[in-house]
Task: inverse folding
């Protein structure tokens, strides 16, 4: 089987492949319609498929397109897993919940963000409290989203970013730029002012499908960070946290943490994986991001800054708009068979490790036996 055939050229084709493969694998499907439409006017949805017994205590949850345009990889991994017949090989007591395109708007429009211009992985904060402040971002906000996108304004943005890094260091720059901001709705890495449709939908899905679950592994597929084709396993928990230690035991010693500089990801505010245990207080939750590298990180960040400008101030249907959209797609999806093969293989391995881990008990016992 050629894994490249599991990857689709756009959101609509990805959804069709997923629904077809999930139905063929005997999945129980549910369609959750999104309030907006894609660039072609077609409807959008998050699609959910359940495999295994409805009362399964051990569950693997996989999520694609948390960051919209990154959904090419996550969807391809999900479809490949289905086409390989993995659903028929689940052990007794194991279920798999596949969430396809939790941010279908971003996937269809080739944007990392939701229809609210929100980075879904900065949106999982408590909005009843004052949002976190990011004064560093405040100082860069205007230059990052100028009125016009010209050689001069791009140079000014690059100079401002370089000056910030020169004074505060590259780690501080990464933190203010990508760590999340709540003061500039038309800026990059904006966390929003309320829970987005995608967050509300994900919350409802987990609540609807996982009431019976006792051990839950979550794999959320991302792209755009790290070396080309390499799947980094990131846990957004400190190393001392039980969830981090479980992830290491299941996935191996290469698991990194956003808390100690071992991951190329800056420490995040409001990411969905860190929020998941509180949504499932009756279960032991082990969340992990599988982050597949694409292009060098400065190219990825500039693609995002340009895309943000385009949707805030420009015209996506202009020549420069089409060029920016092509750059955004290329920054998060490498359209080659070797890269897709690397995604599919690492995704398959992570899913098998998670299924085995969620079904394993401390002391080496099997699921159903009492904890050591
Ligand atoms: Zn991502």
Result:
């Amino acid at each position: 089987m050629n894994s490249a055939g599991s990857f689709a050229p756009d959101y609509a084709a990805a959804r069709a492949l997923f629904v077809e493969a999930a139905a063929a694998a005997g999945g129980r499907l549910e369609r959750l319609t999104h309030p907006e439409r894609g660039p072609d006017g077609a409807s959008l949805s998050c699609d959910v498929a359940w495999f295994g017994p409805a009362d399964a205590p051990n569950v693997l949850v996989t999520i694609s397109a948390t960051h919209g345009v990154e959904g090419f990889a996550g969807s391809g991994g999900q479809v490949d897993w289905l086409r390989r017949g993995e659903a028929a090989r689940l052990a007794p007591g194991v279920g798999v919940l596949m969430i396809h395109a939790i941010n279908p708007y971003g996937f269809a429009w080739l944007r990392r963000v939701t229809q609210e211009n929100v980075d879904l992985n900065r949106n999982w904060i408590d909005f009843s409290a004052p949002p976190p402040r990011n004064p560093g971002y405040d100082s860069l906000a205007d230059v990052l989203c100028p009125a016009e996108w010209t050689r001069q304004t791009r140079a000014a943005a690059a100079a401002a970013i370089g000056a910030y890094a020169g004074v505060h260091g590259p780690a501080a720059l990464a933190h203010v730029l990508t760590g999340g901001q709540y003061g500039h709705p038309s800026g990059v890495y904006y966390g929003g002012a309320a829970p987005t449709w995608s967050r509300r939908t994900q919350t409802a899905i987990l609540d609807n499908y996982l009431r019976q679950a006792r051990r839950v592994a979550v794999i959320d597929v991302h792209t755009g960070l790290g070396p080309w084709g390499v799947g980094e396993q990131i846990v957004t928990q400190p190393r001392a946290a039980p969830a981090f230690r479980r992830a290491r035991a299941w996935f191996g010693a290469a698991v990194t943490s956003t808390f100690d500089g071992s991951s190329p990801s800056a420490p995040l505010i409001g990411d969905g994986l860190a929020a998941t245990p509180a949504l499932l207080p009756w279960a032991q939750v082990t969340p992990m991001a599988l982050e597949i590298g694409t292009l060098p990180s400065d190219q990825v960040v500039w693609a995002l800054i340009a895309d943000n400008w385009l949707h805030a101030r420009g015209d996506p249907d202009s020549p420069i708009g089409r060029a920016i959209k092509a750059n955004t797609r290329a920054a998060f999806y490498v359209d080659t068979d070797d890269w897709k093969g690397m995604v599919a293989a690492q995704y398959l391995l992570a899913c098998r490790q998670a299924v085995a881990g969620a079904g394993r008990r401390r002391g080496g016992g099997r699921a159903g036996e009492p904890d050591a």
